[in-house]
Amino acid sequence: MTAEYHVPDNALEVREVHKSFGGVQALKGVSFSILKGEVVGLLGDNGAGKSTLVRCISGVHPQDKGEILINGQEVDIKSPQDARDQGIETVFQDLAVIPNFDVSKNLFLNREILSSNPILKFFGWLNHKEMSRQSEIALKRLNSRIPSFREEIKNLSGGQRQAVSIARAVNWGADIVIMDEPTAALGVEQAAQVNNLIKLISSQGISVLLISHNIQHVMEVCHRAVVLRHGRAAANVRIEDITPDDLVGLITGAKRAA
Amino acid sequence: MTFLSETRSPVFHKILNREYFVYYALILVIAFFAVVLSETAFLSTPNFMNIIRQTTPITVMAVGMTFALAVGHIDLSVGSVVALSALVCGLLVDVVPWPVAVFAGLSSGLLVGLINGVLTEWLKVSSLLITLGSMGVISGVARVLTNLESIPITNDSFTYIFGSGSFGPVSVMFIWTLLALILGWIFLSKTRFGSHLLAVGGNPTASRALGINVVKVKITAMVIAGGAAAMAGMLYAGRLHGARYSLGEADLLTVIAAVAIGGTSLFGGRASVAGAVVGSWLMGVINNGLILWGFSTNEQIIARGLILIVAVAIGVKEDRR
């Protein structure tokens, strides 16, 4: 892993991103990058700029200044759709699933497979069969414990619901998945399931930007941690080079990056 | 009651499913009246065809209301739109070719739906309040439009197609009911559009995050509710051979009760077109039964109110799961 012999294959690179809301400078030039298949933890106290940074990358609030590069190419992300087109998917903390829909319908929401019959297709006729078939494949790929793609989401546990959100992102060919506190609403066992899923998709070559307050989870699943403080990247460290206590110190500002 | 709550078999669970409730209710009510009214013609084909004939405008409105409720809205203005669209059509039907008059009548309802939808999104207030206001405005306009006068409609083509005609024993109204059922069911259950409606009603935040144009979907749902109410106005005008400001005035409660008892959530995300249609039949059978039993309109209103409360009580239990 020495940089002299190998030019890192950055899936995502953020360069000097600035963002202000009114007079408040939320991001004052943040730079970091994520390798292909890497899990990077984005940490920081409340108000450090984590959510703002994520919203810039996912197109919710485009940055004022600075660049975002995907696979080394500068991209213009002005809307969530732009981000999606660039292979960036976001998994939200508040379980962004439709409770009365089954797993299959959730996986394909707003990306429905339509009937191949041109007349039916014109009316937006859904191809439920094909969506069910592909849902089954998607769930298998993630070794998910979800009983069936026909199960309604409201009958699933929090961890299974989050797994559906992640499966949806992965299923849509995302190269980069941003996860905003995916385990915040979950119990211990459920959170462990989600963490295993993060490791699994990372091993499949998908890059993950994980926003988390849970140091233990970050130590467990991340390769690297980027710590934001006052709108700047205060530290960018490899997980194997740092202790949990030092990581907390970097977040609170008690410790400074070497 | 551990027997019921924990060891319930899948089959038993299915039978108790909320979406079948309205069918059981319909069968029970018909059985009840069949016994009580055994001396009358209640249990006869002509009477049931009569019930469907009288109920069709309610059925059409209920299907439209299902779309509004699916996204989490409600449209209180449907009753007043019935009067407006019928009057607009009635005023024009002798002046212009009748299809143009129908087009104008339907357009008035679609326009009201559009205004309801746009105002609700623009002001970011409950559709309950917006449509309460538009209900007042439109019923006022309907009164002013003809100065409380009724308008007779004598155009035979119009009255035949929109309610008075029949094919043998089958009233043209039955065909309109089937059309409302099939079109509503296809759009809600078989198309991407219906899927998005229910998604928006079930979790608007998630729908927005996934790129669904939530505002557009919600406005469209209100346009459908308004358009269906206008269609009901055509059917009243066709059946009664005339239009009057009071058409549809008493229908709001019936429509909401029919949709709610049919299994559609009053808070969005869960909707059943078939349930709404059967729910409207249930309301029609109860009305018919009470009339044959010798009860007055007043008691019918009480019955409708009670049904709405029962439906809401059952529905709320389901929604809190």
From TrEMBL, chain A:
InterPro entries membership: AAA+_ATPase, ABC_carbohydrate_import_ATPase, ABC_transporter-like_ATP-bd, ABC_transporter-like_CS, P-loop_NTPase
Membrane-spanning residues: none
Pfam (any one): ABC_tran
Protein name per the record: ABC transporter ATP-binding protein
UniProt GO MF annotations: ATP binding; ATP hydrolysis activity
Organism: Kiloniella spongiae
Keywords associated with the record: ATP-binding, Nucleotide-binding
ABC transporter domain ranges (all copies): 12-255
UniProtKB/TrEMBL annotation, chain B:
Gene Ontology molecular function, alphabetical: transmembrane transporter activity
Primary localisation category: membrane
Organism superkingdom: Bacteria
Location in or out of the cell: Cell membrane
Topology term for the membrane: Multi-pass membrane protein
Pfam families given in the database record: BPD_transp_2 (PF02653)
Keywords tagged on the record: Cell membrane, Membrane, Transmembrane, Transmembrane helix
Single GO cellular component term: plasma membrane
Transmembrane segments: 20-43, 55-76, 96-115, 127-146, 166-188, 217-238, 250-267, 274-295, 301-316
Protein name in the entry: ABC transporter permease
